[in-house]
Amino acid sequence: MWARTGVPLLLVSGGATLLLLALAMSSRVEWLLLPLAAAAFFLLLFLVFFRDPERTPGKGIVAAADGRVLSVRQEGGRLRIATFMNVTNVHVNRVPFPGYLVRVDDRGGPKRPAFSPEAEGNSQKRYLFGTPLGLVEVVQITGLVARRCIAWKGAGSPCRKGDRMGMIAFGSRVDVVLPASKVRVSVKLGARVRAGTDTLAEVVA
């Protein structure tokens, strides 16, 4: 299964690959091999990048993104867990805890490397969820290559844990921000996590 955002790119690159392959086989013109190789490369890239496997929700508060846990830190009464996605990760982002989407805000900014501490000031999309814990925030942050944060849910939408909420086109970092007094961190710095299945934190009874 592939993310709906990537379907047009898959259709265009797949169609171009098939057309150039047919032309190359019928005419045997050598100069067609280079554009054929380019079209096939982009098709393979999009097939990998836009894949969207089914996931069974895990326990507690789950990861919103596939990737490596970049930082875990407390900010006053909030706990921020950041996950960095590389190009080989699944880039579909998921809801970490059941509730409803209060609002989605866009904030402009520069395009610094997503793994740097300064990346929190980058262009981003912020999702605020109302949950039994209180407000939970998920922040999609762009990087040097990532240029577009895509939301698949709007304000007022009910959300189940593990629901698809959006993706970052060709990027890069997703933060989950939680009320620190109500959760206990379950994930270690540097751990590899999968969106919707791996636990970031447990709710404190």
Q: Report the count of strand segments.
A: 14
Separation of termini?
37 Å
Spatial order of strands in the largest sheet = 9-5-6-7-11-3-2-13
Overall number of domains: 2
What is the CATH architecture term of the largest domain? Distorted Sandwich
How does this model look, in words?
The chain has helices spanning 7-27, 33-49; strands spanning 61-62, 67-75, 78-84, 92-94, 99-107, 124-131, 134-141, 148-151, 158-159, 164-169, 173-179, 183-185, 192-193, 199-203. The two termini are 37 Å apart. An eight-stranded antiparallel sheet has the order 9-5-6-7-11-3-2-13, with no helix packed on it. The protein has a three-stranded antiparallel sheet with strand order 1-14-12, with no helix packed on it. It is elongated and about 70 Å long. The protein has two helices and 14 strands. The chain is 19% helix and 37% strand. It has two domains: 4-49; 61-203, Glucose Permease (Domain IIA), CATH 2.70.70. It is α+β, with helices and mostly antiparallel strands and 205 residues long. Helix 1 (7-27) runs antiparallel to helix 2 (33-49). A hairpin with a 2-residue loop joins strand 2 (67-75) and strand 3.
Briefly say what this structure is:
Helix content is 19%, strand content 37%.
Question: Which secondary structure elements does this structure contain, and how are they paired or packed?
Answer:
Blueprint: H1 7-27, H2 33-49, E1 61-62, E2 67-75, E3 78-84, E4 92-94, E5 99-107, E6 124-131, E7 134-141, E8 148-151, E9 158-159, E10 164-169, E11 173-179, E12 183-185, E13 192-193, E14 199-203
Antiparallel strand pairs: 1-14, 2-3, 2-13, 3-11, 4-10, 5-6, 5-9, 6-7, 7-11, 8-10, 12-14
Helix pairs in contact: 1-2
